[in-house]
């Protein structure tokens, strides 16, 4: 326990933002969709520790059903990382492992009054173990990923890669459904996928951390807009100070140059729309700022 706490303390120091300052980036004009559509959103936290969180957003669309953004770690985490050895295994057990769920995701949802079997789909921001692992604790439902991320998961079936746990790649093989970014510009992004065609949930490609990482815009009933950016940044401080990726995050970036550029792009987006609530996947304070506290009940999200 002391080793894990010390390691997480070191990660907090790294997360403070010690990378060189980034230059401002040029972005295309802001383009938005005019829409009144909104969704109910609940914070589902599978584990929180020392300012970090492994969380998901449970979204209920008024007519289209329920979607889960991210899923945290698998309840079989310890067994699944046995496929690795050396530094990679130690990394998994120390950092993602510190956010192992206390209860499986399906039981967590049931405790909130939500039937996991009624979920419409899961939309992970990317395929790392602490974002898709919890899907294995759910019934077989569609998993929406970009084509590049689907290819990354497929490679995880062919060989042991650090990016995708073999057990995850194998289990999700017949659940993957490719997101098509057929829409034109949205905000500062060149392409987008409007999930339900009404602007309530809009997905944009953000490659860098992984080849097919995405960000997800969600419009809430109170008029606020949330932008879940996955691991594109580890804290909002990076945007405030325009700092590049921390050492801890760089270690997990497949394309470090593209990942750095995403930080600059997000800063530009934040400057253009200060009301937009940017939500890093693991910064617990950011989740509290949006949702207040993890939901204890989200029963409406099971209605279809």
Question: Can you give a write-up of this model?
Answer:
The chain is an alpha/beta fold and 304 residues long. It has one domain (37-302): Ribonuclease Z/Hydroxyacylglutathione hydrolase-like (Metallo-beta-lactamase, Chain A, 4-Layer Sandwich), CATH 3.60.15.10. Helix content is 29%, strand content 19%. It contains eleven helices and eleven strands. It has helices spanning 2-15, 77-80, 86-94, 105-111, 129-132, 147-158, 166-171, 237-240, 247-250, 256-272, 284-291; strands spanning 40-49, 52-61, 65-69, 119-123, 143-146, 176-179, 193-194, 201-205, 214-219, 225-228, 277-279. The strands form three sheets. It has a five-stranded mixed sheet, covered by helices on one side. The chain has a four-stranded mixed sheet with strand order 1-2-3-4, with helices on both faces. A hairpin with a 5-residue loop joins strand 9 and strand 10. The longest helix is centred in the last third of the chain and has 17 residues, at 256-272. The radius of gyration is 18 Å and the shape is globular.
Topology at a glance:
Blueprint: H1 2-15, E1 40-49, E2 52-61, E3 65-69, H2 77-80, H3 86-94, H4 105-111, E4 119-123, H5 129-132, E5 143-146, H6 147-158, H7 166-171, E6 176-179, E7 193-194, E8 201-205, E9 214-219, E10 225-228, H8 237-240, H9 247-250, H10 256-272, E11 277-279, H11 284-291
Parallel strand pairs: 3-4, 5-6, 10-11
Antiparallel strand pairs: 1-2, 2-3, 7-8, 8-9, 9-10
Short description:
With 304 residues, the chain is an alpha/beta fold. Helices cover 29% and strands 19% of the residues. It is built from eleven helices and eleven strands.
